[in-house]
Design goal:
The chain is built from 6 helices and 2 strands; from the N terminus they run αααββααα. The protein is mainly alpha-helical and 155 residues long.
């Protein structure tokens, strides 16, 4: 199993919003710069994350992205599912889709339960890691918090 850049970048971007946001929308340009992700690709990922109701967006000069849920409620597994990443180790245990093939050996295959259990353990692991966990890891690594939000102090 190999995760695609969409999952890796999506996870880094959601972490970035949670870690660097001060309660305001984070502009895509800031996320792109900090995480070294091309803006166009980031927008494609954000479209999927919005559809999965993990992110919200605000348009306009003070616009950007915010988490749609609390960071402790968003898991790496949620992000993987949002970007439609397959987590099955082998095709014969994949969820049935119109493109999937049935394995003619499924009933007699002694290794299939091994692949099913390994896949379940991987999914459970990704579902156990929250964005809050990633933010705590960043704090422990002394990752500098940045925010380039312009504040208006006029009265």
């Amino acid at each position: 199993m190999k995760l695609t850049t969409m999952t890796r970048y999506g996870t880094r971007a959601v972490f970035d919003i949670a870690y660097h946001s001060i309660g305001l929308p984070v502009p895509v340009q800031e996320i792109s710069t900090r995480q070294e992700i091309p803006i166009r690709y980031l927008e494609q990922i954000f479209h999927k994350l919005k559809r999965a109701k993990l992110l919200k967006s605000k348009k306009g000069p003070s616009g950007g992205y915010v988490l749609a849920l609390a960071p402790e409620k968003i898991t790496v597994g949620d992000i993987i599912r949002a970007v439609k990443e397959p987590l099955d180790l082998v095709f014969c245990v994949s969820a049935k889709t119109e493109n999937s093939k049935d394995c003619h050996r499924a009933e007699q295959c002694v290794t299939r339960p091994v692949w099913e259990e390994a896949g379940r353990l991987i999914k459970d692991y990704f579902d156990s890691i929250t964005i809050t966990d990633l933010c705590e890891n960043a704090r422990l690594r002394d990752v500098k918090k940045e925010s380039n939000h312009p504040f208006d102090y006029s009265i």
